[in-house]
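Illustration 12: Peptide/nickel transport system ATP-binding protein.
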Amino acid sequence: MTVIEINNLKKSYHPGKLAVNDVSLSIAKGESLGLVGESGCGKSTLARCLLGVEKVDGGSIIYNERSLANASRKALRDYRRNVQTVFQNPTAALNPKLKIKDSLLDPFLQFQDELQLEHFHFSSKQAFVEQLLETVELPKELGDRYPHELSGGQKQRVTIARAISIEPKLIVLDEPTASLDVLSQGAILELLASLQETLGMSYLFISHDLAAVHQLCQRIAVMKDGEILDVFQRDNIYDNSRHDYTKELISIF
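Figure caption equivalent — predicted structure in token form:
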């Protein structure tokens, strides 16, 4: 089953220069698709298009067999609920004036009338927060703290907890380990893999780090200058059929 399908997507910021150039990709239920490429290649622009932050100039995004371009307001709200994101900088992603528990509750309170959660239970706000913190391997006491009282790795776990709190179908992970130290990076990748196995979500994992993508993702797409040059199964990374640019990335992998 396909969760999301991107067909011939185009996005330009300057005339004659496409940041995203005729990109087509699909992500299946429960799959991790890695999108790898150098900084400035268009990865984050593609993510913003998927999240609806950027208006596309051409092509389509298909969700639930319907293009978002002609989706109803209700369908767009359903899409926003089911496509969550985790960004590179967890400090910027968390409101410094809110306690962790309030940040964790925000998505639920936005969509509570439409939710039918399978894995999390909302018997009380406190119990819900504690369950989310436990799921991302954080002590429940952190719920009463502010973001500045947490380490970078802890804050990123909080943003992951917030993203999974309403059990989305897809999480867009935009360089989620880039701002962390090596030990925290490995721990976050292991957590993401465990959560996917438990909750059955799909990931679009965007990174310039081929090693991280290879660890987490079953399938990998390689992007350069706004174009997808190569898409392959993880086990086929060393095949001779790989694009020359992919081989360059592998040489420093």
